[in-house]
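Job type: complex structure
Entries:
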Amino acid sequence: MIYSQTRPFPPWYFLVPGIAVGAGVLLPLVYLIVRAFGAEVAELIQIVFRARTVHLLGNTLLLVVGVVGTGILLAAPLAWITARTDLKGKRIFTLLGVLPLAIPGYVMAYALLGLSGPYGTFASLFGPSFPNLQGYWGALIALSFYTFPYFFLNLRTTLLGLDPAIEESAYSLGSGAREVFFRAILPQLRPALYAGGLLVGLHVLGDFGVVSLMRYETFSFALYTQYTAAYDRIYAAWLALMLLTLTGSLLYLEGRLLRGTKFHRTGTGVSHQASPISLGIWRIPAYVYLCVLTLACVVAPIVTISFWTLKGVDGSYMQDFLQALSGSLLVSTPAAFITAAFAVPLAYLGVRYSSSICRTLERGAYIGYATPPLAFALALIFFFRGIPGVYQTIWILIYAYTIHFLAEAIGPVRSALYQASPRLEEAARSLGYRPFKAFLKATFPLLRSGVTVSIAFVFLATMKELPLTFLLSPAGYETLAVNVWSYTTEAMFAEGARYALAIVLCSALFVGLLLMRGVKKTYSYAEAPT
Amino acid sequence: MLRYLAGILCLCLTVGTVGATDHKELVVYSGRSKGLVHPIIKQFEKETGITVKVRYGNTAQLAVALLEEGEKSPADLFWAQDAGALGAVSKQGLFQALPESVLSNVPEGFRNGEGTWIATSGRARVLAYAPERVAAEELPNSVFDLTDAKWKGRVGWAPQNASFQAFVTAMRVLEGEEKTGKWLRDMKANGAKRYPKNTPIIRGLASGEIDLGLPNHYYLMRFKKSDSGFPVEQTFFGTGDAGNLVNVAGIGILRSSSHADEVSSFVEYLLSPKVQQFFISEVFEYPVIDAVIPSEKLLPPDELLKLRPDINLEKLDDLEGTLKLLREADIL
C-alpha cells in the first residue's frame, strides 16, 4: 500500500542532496576530532573535565527548558488565532509575529537592557522604571522574545493544514472541547512542537551574545572563553564535541518521540479547509494579548533602537550603508532559497523512508546547526584555506550558511509533509507520471506553505548572522549585521542603529512578501471548491 | 519556485564573478572596529591610491583564524585591539620583522623585542564610578582596596575581556602569582559582578547595578559624547598601581604578505601625526608618538606615563598563566 515498502531505497534525486549535506556536516566534525587529538590529559582535566563544566551544563539546560516553555506559551495562542479564527487584522499580526526573528539576539539584549533600569529608555520616557533585566530571567526573556516565532510559524503551518474532519469526528463522538484539543488536535501538533523545540533548544545551547550580556553563564560561555581568551583550538574542540553529544541526545529523543507518526488523511474523501472560528466576545482578550505581545517583542526593541538613532545621526557614509545592504541581501537571498531547496529532499527522506540511513541524513542537518559557528568557520578555514576561487568568496559563505541553517528549513517542510498523503503521489504515478514528476505534481504543491516558512527562517537567520560572516566572507565584504556589531561593540549605538533598523525593515519586507503570497494561496485553495 | 531559484542563482553567479578578488590590494584583518578606524582607512586609500580591503571582526577570533590559516593566509596585516593577540600570532612565527624605518617611530615600550609588531595607540585601565553613590574622596587608592568589605557587591568587572586579562597578567608580573590569585579570590568573595565587556560595565554604573567598575578609559568618553549628563565618572588609582595599566592596540605584517612597500606605507601612515591626532580627538585613545596636540579630556602623555605601572608590554603575552589563575579562582 505505501510505496516505501515496494521501493525501500530512495531515488537518487533525494539521496544525492542528502549525502551532500551529510558530507558538509561531517567536515566540521572531522576538524574538531583532529583538533581534539592534540590534547594532553592533565590540561584536559584542568580545562574541560572539571566541576564547573557540569555546573555550566546545568545552567544551560535550565535555560533551554525555560525558553522552550515560554516560547510555546507565547506562540501557541498567536498561531491558533492567526490560523483558525476570523479575527480582523490577522495577516498583520502574522507578520508582526515573525518580526522578532529579525532582531539580532545581542541587539534584543541591548534593547532590553537599555529599556530597563533607572537610567533606561523606559524611565526617561515615562518616569517610573522597572527593575534591571539580568541573569537567568533576563536571558530567558530576551531569548524567548526573539525565538518564539520558531514555534509560531511551525505551529501555524500545521494548523493551516490540519484536516478538520478529525475534530469533527471527535465532536460527533461526544467529546467536549477540552477533550478534542488534547486528544484530536494536540497530537497532530507534535511534529511542529518538536521541530520548534529542537530549533529553540539548539539556539539556546549555542547562544553567546544574549547570555553574556545578561550575565548568565552557560556552556557556550566556556567554549567562547577558550577560543577567544586563550586562542586555543584544542580544548575548545573538546567542549564543542561535548556540546554536540548533548545535541545528539536531544535529536535521539526527538526521533524516538516521532517514530512511526502519520498525520495524513488515510480514509477516502477529500479533506477541506476548516472554516474560521468566530471569536465573538473573546475578540477583546485576543486583541489585548496580540497587542501586548507585539508591544513587548517588536515595538519595544524597535523603538529602543530608533531612540539610539535620535542621539546623533549624520548623513555620512551613505555609500557604506548601501554597500552593506546589498552585501547582506546578496548572500541571504540565495542562501535562503538554496537551503529551502535542500530541505525538501532531506525532509522527504526523513518522513517517507523509515530506513536508518535516511533518518540519519535528516538528523545530520541538526548537527550542522548545533556545531558552534566559530568552530564551523574554523573547520572551513582548515579545509579550504588558500584554495583560489573558493576560499573567502561569497560561495563559501553561502555554502556555510546553507549547511549551518538547514535545520531551520527542515522543520516546516517536515510538518507539511506529515500532512501530505503519500497516496496522492501513488495516484499520480499510476496515472503514468514518472516518480519525480509525480512528486512535483502531487506532493510539492502541498509543501508550498512549509517551504515558504523555511525560506523566511533562513533569510532572517542569515541577515543577522555574525561568526560565519566574520571569518568566511571575502575581505572587505560587509553586511548589515557586521556593521551593527562593529558599532555597538564600541558603544556607538547611534551609528549602529540604522544598520539594525535596516535588518528589521528588509526582513519585514521579505517575509511580508513571502507570507502574503502564502496567505493568498491558502485562501484560494479554500475557496476553490465552491 | 524553480524559476525563482534559477534567477537567483544567475544573479549570484554574476556577483560572485564581479566580486572575485584582485590581488593588487592590501588585505587587513582588523580587530579594531569599523566605527573606530574606518575614516582612517578611507583617507589612506584616497591619499595613496592603494585599495584596502578590511575584514572586521573580534580580535581574538581573527587571531585564531590566522593561526588556522597559517602560511596560506590572504592577509597582509593584522591590526589588533590588544598586545596579547599580537603576541599569540607572533609566537607562532606568522609575523615578519617590521622595517627599521617603521620601528624607529615609537619609543621602545610601544613595540615588541623582535620588532614584529608595533603599537598604534594606547588604552588605559581606569576606575569608573557613579558619583551619585560614591564621593570622589571615598575612592580607593589601589585596585587591591576593592576587596574591602565596604565595596561588597558594588564592583563590576569583565573577566573574559582581553583588556581585563592583560591587566591581571600585569598584576602577576608586578605583584606575583600568589598575591594576584588571592586578589581574584577575594574579589569574587566580595561579590564582584561579572560583565561580558567594558560597555555593559559603564551601563551598569549608570543604571545603578554597581557603583565602581574596571573598564578601559575611552568607553565612558564615547557615552559622554552623545549624552554629556551621563551619570558616570572615571579616574586613576594611585601612582604605579597595576590597575592603571596602559595596554596598546597594535599592528604586525604577516609573513604571507607579498606587498612589502604597501604594508610599510600603511603602518607608517598609522603612526603619522595626523592619524595619531585622530586617535586622540575621535577615538579618545592615547598617542604613541610625541608630535601631537594634547586633548583636554585625556591626561598629558607624560602624566599618564608617571601614573602607569612600570611594565614591559611583551611580558603581557603569558596569557596561559592568567587563564589558569582565573580558572583556579573559579572565575572563568
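Summary: Residues 1-6, 520-530 of chain A have pLDDT under 50 and may be disordered. Residues 3-256+281-527 of chain A form a domain with the MetI-like fold fold (CATH 1.10.3720.10).
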